[in-house]
């Protein structure tokens, strides 16, 4: 091997060792820095606080569910009878001045009925058809009238009466403001009590649960179905809850 070739090989080996040395050196520099931060307590620290805000508002929309259930031996007959009764229910509701756009079908289910003997064997024994509609009202004085008229016309199932907000965002904004203020106060109290210094807020999360369902006595449907007076149902107040979670850095 000539002196020149030997020199070229030696230079390549030297360059390779130099690169490996730099990489290894950087690795240990960062490793020592991490260990020093851990020991000295300079690593990033955070604290998370959670608080709930509430807003109380009067609902502006009532949702009523009425249904007709029909049993029979023949499916075609069951469908015809159920349709006739439901049409009568819808006509009675519309006669109160309620627009058709405020009424919609939410359930229509036809299924066979089965009869079981003592040995556990079963056979079809007719059909059942259940059909339900939903009525949305902004005039709460019509709630009892809808239930009464629907029952008198043949509705034999009152699913539920619930109350909603057409636009819940205003109430949520009020609850959110209260929740954030409470969370900030809690964070300040924790920092003062523990001697920590709060840094900037680095994370925000919120979730809400709303909806109000008054207790509805099913005996109302029996009463109005037998000519009883229309029930009086009051919406009361709807509570909108919103919970926030704030995360702060600790300096």
Any chance you could write out the topology, listing elements then pairs?
Elements: H1 3-40, E1 45-57, E2 61-72, H2 75-94, E3 103-116, E4 122-137, H3 143-153, E5 157-164, H4 169-194, E6 198-209, H5 219-225, E7 238-250
Antiparallel strand pairs: 1-7, 2-4, 2-5, 3-4, 6-7
Helix pairs in contact: 2-3, 3-5
Structural summary, described in words:
With 251 residues, the chain is an alpha+beta fold. Strand 3 (103-116) and strand 4 (122-137) form a beta hairpin. Helix 3 packs across helix 5 (219-225). It contains five helices and seven strands; from the N terminus they run H-E-E-H-E-E-H-E-H-E-H-E. The protein has three domains: 1-43; 45-56 and 170-209 and 244-250, 2-Layer Sandwich (Translation Initiation Factor IF3), CATH 3.30.110; 61-164, Alpha-Beta Plaits (2-Layer Sandwich), CATH 3.30.70.2970. The strands form two sheets. A four-stranded antiparallel sheet has the order 3-4-2-5. The chain has a three-stranded antiparallel sheet with strand order 1-7-6, covered by helices on one side. The model is unreliable at 211-227 (pLDDT under 50). Helix content is 41%, strand content 35%. It is elongated.
